[in-house]
Amino acid sequence: MAMGEQYLGNMQFTERVKEEANIVELIGQYVKLKKSGKSYVGLCPFHDEKTPSFHVTENPKLYYCFGCGEGGDVIGFFMKKEGMIFPEARDYVARESGIPVPVFKRQYKGTVLNTRDALGIAQEFFSRNINNHEAAAYCMERELDEATIKQRGIGYALNNWHALKNNLLGIGFKLEDLVSAGLVGQKRDSPAESRNPDDYYDFFRNRLMFPLRDRFGLLVGFAGRAISSEDEIKYLNTVSQTRFGKTFYNKSEILFGLSEARNAIRETKKVLYTEGYIDEVSARKIGMENVVASGGVAFTQKQAKILRDVGAEEIIFIMDMDEAGIRAAKKAVQVAYAVGLTPLLASISNKDIQSNEELRGYGKIDLDVLARHYRDPDMVMASLTIGDVIEFVLKTSEKPKEPEAQNKLLEEIVSYFYLLPAGRKMLWINKAAKELGIPEDIVQVKYFERLKQSVVPERGCCKAR
Ligand SMILES: [Zn+2]
After folding, report:
1. Which domain holds residue 438?
2. Confidence label for 26 from pLDDT (cuts 50, 70 and 90)
3. Ligand 1 center to residue 83 CA distance, Å?
4. Distance separating alpha carbons of residues 7 and 2, to the nearest angstrom
5. Is 416 buried (19+), middle (13-18) or exposed (0-12) by CB count in 10 A?
6. Is the pLDDT of residue 456 over 50?
């Protein structure tokens, strides 16, 4: 395609996006809009106000605020609201509107290559190497088929210190862009000002590469899964990155699969959470659409808030119930409660589930079993009440004999008590005392101490039994 043709194609595409996008629906995800005459009105997302002066019209497709003067088209809205650059916002609106995004051939010569380009080209490079025999053997073992690999953009970082770096330098990237994209590291003992390519090395080596996207589907980094059992670090993520002084990638905010899962989460108000990228990929393959993963980081409050904002009300944790998994689950459940999400715990033994009680049983997870029941309309997954959580913690914790460890466990247990409805508190103080073999009044004192420093959850009330 010649340069001129490409420019024309770009313009036509942009016009089509502006024309076909449902501006009311897209902006409506941010602002509660009410029809008033020919326009839709709501509270402005760009300035603080009590009476609505923010207008969205369908003909012409524009938004405007009479309070602060902010206004423009639908693409401009996302640029302004989410800090996207033009092609990012345009492509995002296109994807949301079901308009296929054309692939324009990149012109490397004479263009300014930036961090985002480096990530995109690195992904292509990783994808081209997926048939390397070590990677292929690993994919086979983990039952990752070709269609899935292609669809999810999974690739392989060669077992080589300079392969990606040399490829990108050859295209015309500068070393500092590769460093700031998190693709290349600098040898510790080399001078800080060094521009000698030999002092830099590929950050990801001999790893299966999963592209990480933010909730708008923009590529922001990678997670590399070690394929050699000798590798001590199982997951290696891109280090946090900033762009235009804004953090555009922070691993505590990334949820793998979120851009694919977003609509399903919004529709079902439920999200399934797994710990590994491969679990996420497998779960999606067997038909679970509202699934996300967070590899290498424990479930964070930021992630919980993002899921809540996307529309989740319930979060179903799918975790291995080994020691590390149980520890992670306890923490995750608390994080979910703190932002007003109702946590459910799916830990399924390798047999058909007969009852909700069994669903809560602490066994090894079998995704196929979960999928079968997930599709079953009669299967209502019991939500984990705060009582369940306390019981779960009591059941799965070792009961220590030393006062110090005992105190620590007691502190953890009472940290859930403020979420209990008033009428249930004494019952649980009594239960915990019995289970831990500690006098009831000590549990009570601990609880009152904790109450003084407790924070109230931001949203919702907690169902308790
Ligand atoms: Zn305004």
Report:
1. 389-452
2. very high
3. 17
4. 9
5. buried
6. no
Q: Which of 360, 384, 408 is the last residue of a domain?
A: 384
Which of 96, 124, 152 is the C-terminal boundary of a domain? 96
How many A from CA of 70 to the centre of ligand 1? Answer: 6
Q: What is the distance between the alpha carbons of residues 178 and 172, in angstroms, rounded to a whole number?
A: 11
Q: Separation of 64 CA from ligand 1 center, angstroms?
A: 8
Tell me, in angstroms, the distance from the centre of ligand 1 to residue 51's CA. Answer: 11
Look up residue 419 and give its amino acid. Answer: L
Using the mean position of ligand 1's atoms as its centre, give its distance from the Cα of residue 37 in Å.
20
* 42 Cα to the center of ligand 1, angstroms: 10
- 343 belongs to a structural domain: yes
Q: For residue 263, how far is its CA from the centre of ligand 1 (angstroms)?
A: 28
- Ligand 1 centroid – CA 71 distance (Å): 9
Q: How far does residue 22's CA lie from ligand 1's centre (Å)?
A: 21
Chain-wide mean pLDDT for the chain? 79
How many whole angstroms from 55 Cα to the centroid of ligand 1?
A: 9
Helix axes 163-171, 115-128, angle to 10 degrees: 130
Distance 309 CA to ligand 1 centre (A): 21
pLDDT in tens, 225-281: 999 888 888 888 887 665 555 555 677 788 999 988 888 898 888 898 887 788 788
The pLDDT assigned to 249 comes to: 67
How many CB atoms sit inside 10 A of residue 259's CB?
17
Q: How many residues does the chain have?
A: 465
**What span, in angstroms and rounded, lies between the C-alpha atoms of 7 and 4?**
5
Q: CA-CA distance, 73 to 76, in Å (whole number)? A: 5
Ligand 1 centre to CA of 299 (Å) is 35
The CATH number given to whatever domain includes residue 29 is 3.90.580.10
